[in-house]
Design brief:
binds nicotinamide-adenine-dinucleotide; six-stranded mixed β-sheet; alpha/beta; about 500 residues; Aldehyde Dehydrogenase, Chain A, domain 1
Length: about 500
């Protein structure tokens, strides 16, 4: 384990130590109408790294109005080809600024720098994909009974509220903004209060790429203060939310009276199903990576390992060995494999689950400690064995580096365990038996599954959850359906 570099610690900066960053509204940086700001913390040190505007209803109103006005401005005259060019240019500029974006994301979200670089590249790739998609998403002609021509048009929904979490700030903002722009909408992006910095940079990049003012707005602030008035705003027609299931449910109810379009990417408690014919030398490190990467703060984290009893002990030993080897520490150090959690609150929450697991009778095989690295929010990767379905650590999303291992005897039992939570986002099936892989791919209730792999996300393929894990599918061509309305037109030939 390595500790953050033992350089002189700066005195704790306050929100006023440097000018606060404003919202990005109507193509300009703007302070909050109230004048209030709040600090943004570096989770590896616990120190303030910036201050940003604290948005409230009046700021949400200004942002929604700017976006609405932009829908009637030059943006509405952009041909599909011009929109595609603007999106390609955003991708190019993200790459041109890759190192500074990666450093910012790494510092703000506590990500190991190598991972942050990968995420910046993924954001660029996402804009590139939707730049290409602009010209490949179109309506159809339909042979109807009446005499004439029937065809469909794809039209923008209008002003889209894009609300994002702190675990992949730039990536998830891109997943929403790129298809929203591809479909000619205007957007107000409300990044998580903990990680607003790369969203503000992305808005500037969009402006530099030639996206007209007001098409991309960023409203910084807290969920109930800034996000909620945005969701309720009468000019907002679409809400795309990624975050916790509890908030997603609440926002869906808020959007209901005005029948806004809603898509939700929510929590998960995803399983790895490991059968006795699995290649354990490949599966164990992969299963460890699938729950410990991003310090477990990943909606697709395979936080439950359901393992055939014949290989259960072997699996637990191998996965715990991987956990113990992980280098936890300073995100700036290229050798670091796991950084801190996002906040003291998240650290307390994860440690609370570690305590709950022990109290409920699970065996803590390793990790679950809080090393003192001088102010950061670190927790070491934990493996629990003997986890029963009735336990909270089996049922509830921890969103931290905690793997829960549970043995099973039969295929039916494995499926019942896999489906035995409220969630259904991702899952992995480890077996060399193709028939079993196919049977289980059908039976596991989950929006995303991988066989002999833990990968969940491909820009080109749909992503989203069953059950309490969400509504709608992001990424791939499916995402364009979230950001467009279908209009059917019939022309009589008489
Ligand atoms: P969160 O729900 O607390 O916050 C997410 C966003 O919603 C933030 O921008 C927050 O400010 C905003 N928000 C909170 N309360 C609000 C309110 N009342 N009105 C409007 N906006 C509000 O979630 P989080 O803690 O930032 O992120 C962690 C959660 O996100 C986990 O549950 C995780 O599984 C989920 N997540 C899901 C996916 C996915 O694709 N399914 C991806 C990443 C994270």
């Amino acid at each position: 384990m390595v500790s953050p570099k033992a350089e002189k610690k700066p005195a704790r900066k306050t929100a006023v130590a440097r000018p606060a960053l404003g919202h990005w509204i109507g193509g300009k940086e703007r302070p909050s109408i109230s004048g209030q700001t709040f600090p943004v913390v570096n989770p590896a040190t616990g120190l303030d790294m910036a201050a940003v505007a604290r948005g409230q209803a009046a700021d949400a109103d200004a942002a929604a109005k700017a976006a609405d006005a932009a829908l009637r401005g030059p943006w509405s005259k952009f041909s599909p080809r011009q929109r595609a060019r603007a999106l390609f240019e955003i991708a190019r500029l993200i790459r041109a600024n890759a190192e500074s974006l990666a450093e910012l994301e790494s510092q703000n979200a506590g990500k190991p720098i190598g991972e942050a670089r990968g995420e910046v590249e993924a954001a660029a790739g996402c804009f590139e994909y939707y730049a290409g998609a602009v010209s490949k998403f179109f309506g159809e002609t339909i042979p109807v009974g009446a005499s004439g021509l029937d065809f469909t048009l794809r039209e923008p929904v209008g002003v889209c509220a894009l609300i994002t979490p702190w675990n992949y700030p730039l990536v998830i903002a891109s997943w929403k903004l790129a298809p929203a722009l591809a479909c000619a909408n205007a957007a107000v992006l409300k990044p998580a209060e903990a990680t607003p910095l790369t969203a503000l940079r992305l808005a500037r990049i969009c402006a530099e790429a030639g996206v007209p003012e007001g098409v991309v707005n960023v409203l910084t602030g807290f969920g109930p203060e800034a996000g909620e008035p945005l969701v309720k705003h009468p000019l907002v027609r679409k809400v795309s939310f990624t975050g916790s299931t509890a908030v997603g449910r609440h926002l869906m109810a808020l959007a209901a009276p005005s029948l806004k379009r809603v898509s939700l990417e929510l929590g998960g408690k995803s399983p790895s199903l490991v059968f006795d014919d699995a290649d354990l030398d490949r599966c164990a490190p992969d299963a460890a990576g699938a729950v410990f990467s991003n310090a477990g703060q990943d909606c697709c984290a395979r936080s439950r390992a359901l393992v055939h009893e014949k290989i259960y002990d072997d699996f637990v030993e191998k996965v715990a060995a991987c956990a113990k080897k992980l280098r936890v520490g300073d995100p700036r150090d290229p050798k670091t494999e796991m950084g801190p959690l996002i906040s003291q609150r998240q650290k307390d929450r994860v440690l609370g689950y570690v305590a709950a697991g022990k109290e409920e009778g699970a065996e803590l095989v390793c990790g679950g400690a809080a090393p003192d690295f001088g102010g950061g929010f670190f927790v070491t990767p934990a493996v629990f064995a003997g986890v029963a379905p009735r336990m909270r650590v089996f049922q509830e999303e921890i969103f931290g580096p905690v793997l829960c291992a549970t043995p099973f005897k039969t295929e039916d039992e494995a499926v019942a365990l896999a489906n035995g939570t409220d969630y259904g986002l991702s899952g992995s099936i480890w077996t060399r038996d193709v028939g079993r892989a196919l049977r289980l791919a059908r039976r596991v209730q989950s929006g995303v599954l991988s066989i002999n792999s833990s990968s969940s996300v491909h820009i080109e393929a749909p992503f989203g959850g069953f059950k309490a894990s969400g509504l709608g599918r992001e990424l791939g061509m499916k995402a364009l359906e979230l950001y467009s309305e279908v209009k059917n037109v019939f022309i009589s030939d008489r």
